[in-house]
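User: Show me a protein chain along with its predicted structure.
Assistant: Here is one chain, sequence first, then structure tokens.
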Amino acid sequence: MNKVAVIAGAGPAGLTAAMELLRRSDYRPLVFDLDSQVGGISKTVNYRGNRMDLGGHRFFSKSDWVMNWWQEMLPVSSTPEELEGLTLAYQGKTREFSARSAAMDNRGQVMLVRPRLSRIYYRRKFFDYPLKLNAQTLRNVGLLEAGLLGASYAKSRALPRSPETTLEDFFINRFGDRLYRTFFKDYTEKVWGVACDEISAEWGAQRVKGLSITSALTHALRHAIPRSRDLAQKGVETSLIERFLYPRLGPGQMWEEVADRVVKSGGQLHLRHKVVGLDRQGGRVVRVQVVDEASGESRVVDCDTFFSTMPVNELVRQLAPPDEGIQRIARGLPYRDFMTAGLVVRKMRGTSAPAKAPLDNWIYIQEPDVRIGRLQIFNNWSPDLVANPGTVSLGLEYFCREGDDLWSMDDPGFIAFAAQELEKIGLIDRDDVIDGTVVRVPKAYPAYFGEYARIGEVRSFLDSIENLFAIGRNGMHRYNNQDHSMLAAKAAVECLLDGSTDKSSIWAVNTEDDYHETQSDGSAANAGDSRTAARAAA
């Protein structure tokens, strides 16, 4: 390993890049991360044995490569007989896929197959998500309102907004104006802190993709017909999947395993280290300055290539482009920050025991009189996330801005505030709260408004630096899921190994509904797999 690859960030993108470099090249990855644990926002926070998943991470992907990569790290805890028939089917064609089963060992290094349930909580009532045209929905909204919602949707189909430039346009064209204002507008603006007509439609294209009333109804009809147990669910929109894989101890268990393998394979991992300076010469990054946050010691590392998952504004600042316009755009890129109040409660209101708690993985809180955005019930992600099975472990998620009134609350005050809000909307009694903690995540969500409209100029500058690869959610200023971040890392490694200066394959991840997958002869491979096969054949 004579070549050095410096990787800023030990989240899904950074660790995937490190693992792929070790498997497929003579590069030695040196991974630096400011946090004290790996995983980025996909880490698992352990508070007195109660494990918290920040944001909720379903291990589901339409990419065969990602699904198999995950299972190489953590196989599925089940018997072969139980997994029999869990084949992959997509658009009517079966593809090769098999769940890798394993018995639970003494470390519990496995994934579980988990049922998915999420609902909307609005007007102190639960609504299915995605919305279903069933008796419960009709009772909740009333026949008159249901008719008005249907008429509004029909109007949007007959007279769609064009051009579709804002997120409001995107939602109305797929759900109708009335349904958008009832179930989407308030929650989305709670998340982003700005009006939907100020957010780019690109956010909806990346996050909601093909989900609409039509796709939801089609899915409901298919669900009524018996079908094979399709674990991969390739023909299902991500928001409609009914089960997913999940590490027994939360998403961080996956990335801790990957980090362990990176180190055992010859890579290096340095936590509590921050990249503070980049030296570039002749269109290449040649040295990286790193500070050890624990000791304050600074050192310079020579590198042959540099993978960045740090926020784009910080990366551009360190690169100091001569074009002041690029610097100004990068400085103005917006972010949304995130806070979670982890509460341990004896039971939910209206229930007699923890086992009677709602079965949801998470609940979207649409109520306008509280600021909580989403509620996770960690018991339903994995029973092993909860220290005491006689309690319910909750994650109350808030979207905020670093330095605002929420962010600035002290921990006891924020825990009390969060418990009061959940009591206000009738989900718990504050007297049942046993314990609590607070987790703050700055720059959790790259935002799609403001200077984002000109991010293409920043991308062009970054791509002009031959040995620099921007990957991951913050590295690309893109609201990626962890599988998107992994695919971007994979594409970046392949660009490096191919000696290609065309980095469009990296930026193309998460811009198409099927994550680059194409069909031929009844099989599929993503763009990166095709390039790998071509290089191997050569």
